[in-house]
Amino acid sequence: MAGQVATGSRSGLRSALPLLLPAYLWLTVAIFLPLSAMVFFSFMTELPLSGKAWSFTLDNYATFFAQGLYWTLLLASLRLGLEVTLWCVVIGYPAAYVLAKVFRGRSREAIFLLVILPFWSNGLVRIFSWAMVLREGGILDTALNAVLPFKINIDLMYSYPAVIIGLVHSYVPYMVLTCYLTLQAIDDSLIEAGRSLGASRLQMLKRVIIPLSMPGLVAGAALIFVPVVGSFMEPRILGGRTGTFYGTVIEDQFVAVFNWPLGAALSFILLAVVLVILALASPVLKRAA
Amino acid sequence: MRMPKLTAFVTATAVFASALTLAASADEVHVLNWKGYGADEPWAIAAFEKATGNKVVNDFFNSEQEMLTKLRTNPGLYDVVMINAAFNDQAMAEKLIQPIDVSKIPNYADISPDKAGSPMLARDGKVYGVPWVWGLTALAINEKAFETPPTSIAEMWNEAHKGRVTIRDDAVEAVQFGAIATGQNINDIKDMEAVKAKLTSLMPQIKTFWSSENDWNQMVASNQIDIGTYWSGSADRAKTHFKLPVSLVIPREGAVAWLDAFSIPVGSKNVAGAEAFINYMIDPKFYVEWVTKVGAPVSANTKAVAALPEDAFNRKVMGDPDVARRIQFQAPITDAQREAYLALWQELKVNVK
User: A221-236 as b/e, with b when 16 or more CB fall inside 10 Å?
Assistant: First the structure.
């Protein structure tokens, strides 16, 4: 019996091979090879390109542990990732619910389009637009002061909130899309059944809707958390003097001082930390899902 | 059946790629420089190509380290490279650049003797770099914020400008700026702790770090900053080209000066074209047009500077002997120093959080 299953799956693999090959070939060439080169670099004293003698070393990894600076930055980046993910849930989940359960037909398509519209614009353009909105004397400041009877001074530019706003704006569509898919799949009859059994709105949400849409929430959170922890463009442009994060330090190693080995080592430490966090969280999330 | 095809494909790709790199033909001049830094001005390229029949191919770098790596990994590709004099020594030691026969460059004779004689550009009596332009990393002010321009670097620490100061996000520049503020020699910083303390006290004043000219100019245009470190050529461009209320201040404590020079990489396939291009780049005609149309640093060619109007910033202020006494030219920095500066700078930026 077991043997039969095994041969069955093997022949399935054989027939699937021609279909899988292009994707895996592409992944090997475009992701796996450069990534392994980076692993290799992270254990070197010098880049072989520089023409200097090089040898293998663990120093690049030791640097991370020797300096409190990198820990501080890593913690700051993890906190940033958590905060941005939280805001994306707060903003994205209700929007996804309305899209999936309230709107129908044309209006749903129109709203859906508005949600994914930011995806079609370049990331840098989005950030620079925020710069115009958030600064003192910018669009937000001017508009609020034109409406409000008293004078307020809004200068969010070059601050931590500005980084959060920029990142949430960039990543909230992921949360809306993943939650929308799971929310839409919830059978309306379950909701009707719950209601006919006397569940209040809050109970419905807690006992039926959130548990059933949990996979979407988890997928969205992972999709957002991981890139935000390593983000460098938004903090650099919107964060001002508070915009130094783990990602910007890695960028400096690659771009400013050309110390690729240290930059690579820092990147892999980040990767390891993120994987550990996801691994620790997965049993909890699985139970919840 | 599938494998040979794949091999053929890979080989074809490799052949195609190498053909691309070897495509540098004899009458092409491959130039490696910062983007938007004179050598890639379309009008200048057109004039040079018309005059000499050489075709200019520009390539760019974003940091000196990237420039050195491009030279190391592409031997024989470039004919002209623009190197900050402080990096010339390293390029020379690694045998990336070759000696230049200055007799083939007629305009070389007009280069001011102190620039041409810079020990950073010559070794064993041979010239490895032709001085092109020089400039300062000094202060610039938003004219709207000052009745009279300040004269001291201490203005950056003035409480009145809290949250309206900017400094470039660059470890070497920041540390050398700190050295000047603490009265030290930028090329021989004895008291690093003093520099650190001085920069630490500057951090609360800072609005943001700038990294490009565009950052600086936008912050002045929207009146977000009062004062900050800036490059002399950029301040000139902001004022003349973009009509912004910016003026350069060379503080009495001094300023960091840098010298940019052209070199010819080892293995250049068109040395004659390279010499012609360098000659054109230091020519007064090109320089005056560059200053008028775009704004530029100060030419190392005395005749080129003399061709500017008498009240031109690059002639009047930068040519002032009193300024010359105050400025300190950047000398080469070792990799160890650069990493130490970066560590200090990163620590400062993290502690501000």
Answer: bbbbbbbbbbbbbbbb
Q: What digits encode the pLDDT tens for the residues A9-33?
A: 566 778 888 888 999 899 989 889 9
Q: Are strands B80-84 and B126-127 parallel, antiparallel or unpaired?
A: unpaired
Number of domains in chain B: 2
Distance CA B270, CA B267 (A): 9
Give the pLDDT confidence of A180-220 residue by residue, as tens digits. 999 999 999 998 999 999 999 999 999 999 999 998 999 99
Report A:33-52 residues touching B (Cβ under 8 A).
47, 49-51
B7 touches chain A (CB under 8 A): no
Does B222 contact A at CB distance below 8 Å? yes
Whole-number average pLDDT of chain A: 87
Nearest to B58 by CA among B35, B74, B75: B35
DSSP class of residue A44 equals B
CATH number of domain containing B298: 3.40.190.10
- Same domain, yes or no, for B201 and B226? yes
Reduced to 3 states (helix: H, G, I; strand: E, B; else coil), residue B211 is: coil
Residue B53: φ, ψ to 5°: 80, 0
Task: Look up the ipTM and state it.
Answer: 0.74
Beta-carbon separation of B208 and A137 below 8 A: no
Residue A210 identity (one-letter amino acid): I
Residue B51's nearest CA partner among B273, B215, B252, B311 is B273
Kindly give the parts of chain B with pLDDT less than 50: 1-4, 6-24
**Domain interval for residue B181:** 135-257+330-351
The shortest CB-CB distance from A241 to any of B63, B203, B339 is to B203
Structural domains in chain A? 67-288 (1.10.3720.10)
Say if residue B162 is in the same domain as residue B296. Answer: no
